[in-house]
């Protein structure tokens, strides 16, 4: 009898927990199979060709397309039903970002289609089918995320778990495929640059899986082949963003949420002029450094050394300023006494885990560079700049992670509502100026004493009191006595002014760090990678081991910068 009383809740939770475990294991096995297939193609395993890998990816995308169509059709038939939404998931700025990356991904697909047409005589049909399928997959997935990223699924939960987790790992495999293709292209250029720096004893067979036939139109083939690799960074960011949004959707399946009003926090340029100016200076200078670096590196030994020195000096100054800004922001937080929001939030938890997890990629590269500098017997002059650069990369990410994670966990101030309530209670006791002052402080940011005229609402209340009392002197004496501000009014105005100044500083810091992270995303994403080019690490660790480390860690380092920029944008809106 006692068992029957508690069984309904338990019987409902166990199947869903099992479905979560089974779906996660399904997704991991799906990913591992694709990962091994990708690796086998990269190392020319016997019996494995690129067509096998592309066929596997096409199959996964088609399955996801069928699931998304089924979900969209079912949602249309039930559109009148009120559904729970996760207000923290699928922010509008995040949707706009993934849409931008998706548009550039579609351009990449069109380049691949043109490349296939030019080399159609010697390429597998799967290389033509893949970009077409991928383009359709991209369009439908972006539409799906715009419409349903906030959904909290409460029906067909077991089936939906498998569909969403399938989508998550399909995007991760597409991300891996893009990373591999881009890394192979970078590796070929890297070998040529090392030779110009004097590292001629490095031997490796160059291999980019080039077609074994002539192109029908040489000019177009060159445009398509070169353009593809410049567009890959956007394709990589698109798939990793899509997988994170889908993962939050998967974690929200069957979740019970508290219904409360979520205040919208739109982005405003007002009050962040200083941070934007300094950030734009960093962004502009970084673009110039990248252009010069790509032109100079590999030209000659002297030009390559100058390009590396220029890159390191610029990065050292930028990272030092970012560290200083992060420390100032953390000190401001230490001066404030505000509680943290520890409520369950899958999107916020994932943001924090991604920040720390992806930062480990650049930390690995930095510690490798530091160890190489310590252990190397010969030190070219430019390699000494690598030491402070690597140390600052570690410190800057450590400070920035603390700032972002604390910012997204801090509760927004609710002092204004309490003050308005206090002032309304005060006016009921006859203090008219207190309410006037509080409203002007709250909405105009200054004391009411600065204005020579009171709001019409309070004029009406005073004149009404004069008419009812019948005594002009008594009303005048009450009005004059109310003109004198109380000590609490001055105290609140002072506290409010200090709070506004702190908030303004934090918003400028967040805006500055946002643009700095976008700036530091550009160099590695577009081929400016000193970890490849300075040559010292290859001497200490060996060419192939270090290249493997760089190829594994660099994608996480690139994603860290874009994810940090997105998180800082949210911090700026929230502050």
Secondary structure elements and their pairing?
Blueprint: H1 2-42, H2 50-77, H3 92-118, H4 126-148, H5 157-196, H6 218-251, H7 273-296, H8 301-335, H9 346-375, H10 386-409, H11 415-427, H12 432-444, H13 456-469, H14 472-483, H15 487-525, H16 530-533, H17 536-541, H18 543-574
InterPro entries: Otopetrin (IPR004878)
GO molecular function, one term: proton channel activity
GO biological process, one term: inner ear morphogenesis
Q: Could you characterize the architecture of this molecule?
A:
- The protein has 575 residues and is mainly α.
- It folds into 2 domains: 15-256, no CATH class; 270-412 and 494-574, no CATH class.
- Helices cover 76% and strands 0% of the residues.
- The protein contains 18 helices and no strands.
- The chain has helices at residues 2-42, 50-77, 92-118, 126-148, 157-196, 218-251, 273-296, 301-335, 346-375, 386-409, 415-427, 432-444, 456-469, 472-483, 487-525, 530-533, 536-541, 543-574.
- α2 (50-77) runs parallel beside α4, α3 runs antiparallel to α6 (218-251) and α7 packs antiparallel against α8 (301-335).
- The longest helix is centred in the N-terminal third of the chain and has 41 residues, at 2-42.
- The model is unreliable at 1-11, 415-477 and 479-483 (pLDDT under 50).
């Amino acid at each position: 009898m006692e068992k029957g009383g508690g069984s309904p809740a338990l019987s409902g939770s166990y199947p869903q927990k099992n479905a979560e475990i089974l779906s996660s294991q399904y997704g991991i096995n799906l990913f591992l199979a694709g990962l091994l297939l990708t690796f086998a193609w990269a190392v020319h395993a016997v019996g494995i060709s690129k067509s096998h890998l592309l066929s596997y990816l096409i199959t996964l995308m088609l399955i996801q397309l069928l699931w998304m169509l089924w979900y969209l059709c079912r949602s249309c038939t039930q559109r009148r039903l009120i559904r729970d939404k996760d207000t923290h998931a699928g922010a509008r700025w995040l949707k706009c970002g993934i849409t931008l990356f998706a548009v550039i991904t579609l351009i990449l697909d069109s380049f691949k289609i043109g490349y296939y047409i030019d080399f159609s005589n010697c390429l597998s049909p799967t290389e033509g089918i893949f970009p077409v399928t991928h383009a359709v997959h991209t369009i439908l997935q972006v539409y799906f995320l715009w419409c349903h990223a906030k959904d909290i699924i409460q029906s067909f939960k077991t089936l939906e778990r498998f569909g969403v987790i399938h989508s998550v790992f399909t995007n991760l495999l597409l991300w891996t495929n893009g990373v591999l293709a881009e890394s192979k292209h970078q590796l070929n250029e890297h070998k040529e640059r090392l030779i110009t720096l004097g590292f001629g004893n490095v031997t490796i067979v160059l291999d980019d899986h080039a077609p074994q036939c002539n192109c029908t139109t040489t000019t177009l083939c060159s445009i398509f082949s070169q353009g593809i690799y410049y567009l890959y960074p956007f394709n990589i960011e698109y798939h990793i963003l899509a997988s994170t949004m889908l993962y939050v959707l998967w974690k929200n399946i069957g979740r019970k949420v508290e219904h409360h009003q979520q205040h919208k926090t739109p982005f405003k340029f007002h009050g962040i002029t200083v941070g934007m100016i300094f950030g734009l200076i960093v962004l502009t200078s970084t673009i110039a450094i990248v252009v010069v670096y790509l032109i100079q590196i590999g030209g000659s030994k002297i030009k390559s050394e100058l390009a590396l020195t220029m890159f390191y000096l610029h990065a050292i100054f930028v990272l030092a300023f970012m560290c200083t800004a992060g420390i100032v922001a953390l000190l401001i937080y230490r001066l404030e006494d505000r509680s943290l929001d520890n409520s369950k939030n899958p999107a916020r938890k994932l943001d924090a885990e991604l920040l720390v997890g992806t930062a480990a990629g650049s930390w690995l590269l930095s510690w490798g560079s530091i160890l190489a500098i310590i252990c190397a017997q010969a030190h070219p002059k430019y390699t000494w700049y690598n030491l402070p650069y690597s140390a600052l990369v570690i410190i800057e990410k450590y400070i920035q992670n603390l700032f972002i994670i604390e910012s997204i966990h801090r509760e927004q101030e609710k002092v204004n509502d309490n003050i308005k309530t206090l002032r309304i209670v005060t006016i009921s006791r006859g203090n008219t100026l207190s309410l006037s002052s509080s409203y002007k402080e709250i909405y105009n940011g200054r004391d009411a004493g600065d204005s020579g005229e009171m709001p019409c609402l309070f004029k009406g209340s005073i004149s009404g009191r004069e008419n009812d009392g019948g005594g002009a002197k008594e009303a005048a004496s009450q009005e004059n006595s109310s003109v004198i501000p109380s000590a609490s009014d001055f105290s609140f105005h002072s506290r409010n002014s200090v709070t506004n100044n702190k908030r303004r500083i934090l918003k400028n810091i967040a805006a500055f760090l946002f643009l700095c992270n976008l700036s530091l995303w550009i160099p590695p994403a577009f081929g400016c990678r000193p970890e490849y080019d300075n040559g010292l690490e290859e001497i200490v660790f060996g060419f192939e081991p270090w290249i493997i480390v760089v190829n594994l860690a660099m994608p996480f380092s690139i994603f860290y910068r874009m994810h940090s920029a997105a998180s800082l944008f949210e911090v700026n809106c929230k502050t």
